[in-house]
Amino acid sequence: MTFTFAAAVAWDPQGNKPVKNVSFQAYATSDTGFTTPLAITDTFGNPIVGNILNSGSQGVFPQFNQATNASVVVTDPTHTYAWTWNCVPTDAATANFINTPTTATSAAVYAHAAAITLALGAN
């Protein structure tokens, strides 16, 4: 299975600004010593060179994929910054959640669908 991580701002909470032009790598959440960077790919499945995410001139990481971890820690070489990211839910996971009759989301989705159906039927 491949896990997708959405593009995000590399944010410095102390400086209250984006972290620009810094290289980062992703690690398993269990790799607390940051010893083994995870292999990551772009959205087309192409390996990202050196498994490096660069925050760029705007301080934004690109979207990326990782094959084995649904959560990763992204950190710079000096570990000044470290963020734990969770993957974007898959369509199947979202569908399963919405179709679970006991969830509030399920009720909201069904109510919205019913309202749309009524509105379309009234025309």
UniProtKB/TrEMBL annotation:
It comes from the Bacteria. This is Uncharacterized protein.
